[in-house]
Amino acid sequence: MGNMSGINRTVSGGIRRLAVVLTAAGCLVSCIKDRIPQGADLEAGARLPEFSVTIQDGTEVSTTDLLGNISCIVFFHTGCPDCQKTLPLIQELYDRYGDGAVRFLCISREEGAVSVAEYWSGNGFTLPYSAQDDRRIYNLFATFAVPRIYLSDRAGIIRYIYSDNPLPDYDGLESAINTLLSAER
Question: Which residues pair with 74 in a beta bridge?
Answer without folding.
Answer: 106, 149
